[in-house]
Specification:
With 382 residues, the chain is an alpha/beta fold. An eight-stranded mixed sheet has the order 3-2-4-1-5-6-7-8, sandwiched between helices. α8 links the parallel β2 and β3. The longest helix has 61 residues.
Length: 382
């Protein structure tokens, strides 16, 4: 009996390490099995998701009822919503003008201080002295004739007069559909006003109208101008003709018109220099560009001057100079959403008789909109 117990103890001592090793091996194997199984399950789930996504994409691609959305004219409700948005983006112009206007018209009667306040309001909005005098002159006559007595009547009359000042301009962009050759739109203005961006947005607009567009990178004196225009050409689906840096802008425009003619492209949008790197006169250079553009097979039907609204009365000075050199047919007023100087519209139109055709109200490609005089004035008084 004692011998049997001794034998059992010896056997247990011999087997213990082996049992412990076996348990350790089993534990490791079990752990590896759990990890592998988990990874395989996750892979199947992910594969299933990928298959599901591919199935969904295939279903959409082959769905018979899914069609491309055509470009259509906005409905009446869409126009109202767009107008409201445009008014909202004129916040700086409105707040500057409305604040000064309310101060002038809070008095119980129309006095000399009322007229001083109105003049201040108009000058703050950057109408300029000449335009301010022209706007207020008929109102003074109405007050003198006792046809206007109360300050609130004066406010309504001022809005009507400001709208009237802008009501006779033709704002449609000139595109001659009868031409058997490209229409040419020259885009002029100082550097920094937004010429290149305006060309890109114009191209997008015209492409939506179904017209083919070619850009001529005629601002060869500004570094990277050609690269920027090429990016806009890609975004809007237009072709582009470029020249060498510092080359002759007129040659680039001429080559652009020639290519557009050969490929039967509808419209050439020509960028021009905003400054020169030599001693040549910018206006002489622009006059040459206009002359060369008219010599080719195309026809210049629009010369658009791009003015930064934040420059105020400096923009009026620019307009005078460019109008003399290139026979400007319309103005594009950029950055109007970020300026309190929207009154420059009145100065340009009443003093120079040049219509503001487009205004920039943001950085997006669709943020170049037709200028609506009545809506613009109404926004100032909201």
């Amino acid at each position: 009996m004692l011998a049997l117990e001794v034998f059992a103890l010896q056997l247990a001592a011999d087997l213990a390490p082996k049992i412990l090793l076996a348990l350790t091996v089993l534990t490791v194997v079990f752990g590896i099995g759990v990890v592998v199984f988990g990874r395989r399950r996750d892979s199947k789930v992910d594969l299933g998701r990928d298959d599901f996504a591919r199935d969904d994409l295939a279903k959409v691609a082959t769905e018979p009822n899914v069609v491309a959305t055509p470009v259509v004219a906005p409905k009446a409700t869409e126009k109202v919503n767009a107008t409201a948005t445009d008014r909202d983006r004129l916040g700086k112009v409105r707040s500057s003008f409305a604040g000064a206007l309310s101060t002038a018209l809070t008095r119980s009667a129309i006095t000399a201080e009322t007229w001083d306040g109105l003049e201040e309001a108009l000058l703050r909005a950057d109408l300029g002295v000449a335009t301010t005098t022209k706007v207020l002159a008929p109102l003074r006559e109405l007050v003198k004739a006792k046809k206007i007595i109360q300050p609130n009547e004066l406010s309504a009359a001022l809005q009507a007069e400001m709208t009237s000042q802008l009501s006779n301009s033709v704002r449609e962009l000139n595109f001659d559909q009868s031409l058997n050759a490209p229409n040419i739109w020259l885009v002029v203005g100082v550097n920094g006003a937004g010429k290149t961006t305006t060309i890109g947005k114009l191209s997008a607009q015209q492409r939506k109208h179904g017209r083919t567009v070619l850009m001529a990178a005629g601002d060869t004196f500004r570094a990277a101008a050609g690269d920027q225009l090429e990016t806009w050409a890609q975004r809007s689906g237009a072709e582009i003709v470029r020249g060498s840096e510092g080359g002759d802008p007129s040659s680039v425009v001429f080559d652009g018109v020639a290519r557009a003619t050969a490929k039967k492209i509808d419209l050439v949008l020509a960028d021009t220099a905003g400054r020169l790197q030599n001693n040549a006169n910018l206006m002489e250079e622009l006059t040459k560009v206009r002359r060369v553009a008219d010599k080719g097979s195309g026809k210049v039907t629009e010369v658009l001057l791009v003015i930064d609204a934040t420059t105020g009365q400096n923009g009026l000075t620019q307009a005078k100079q460019f109008a003399q050199a290139t026979a400007v047919t319309g103005v594009v007023l950029t950055k109007l959403d970020g300026s309190a100087r929207g009154g420059i519209v009145f100065a340009i139109e009443t003093e120079l008789q040049i219509p503001v055709k487009l205004v920039g109200l943001g950085e997006a490609i669709d943020d170049l909109v037709e200028f609506d005089a009545a809506e613009f004035v109404a926004a100032l008084f909201d």
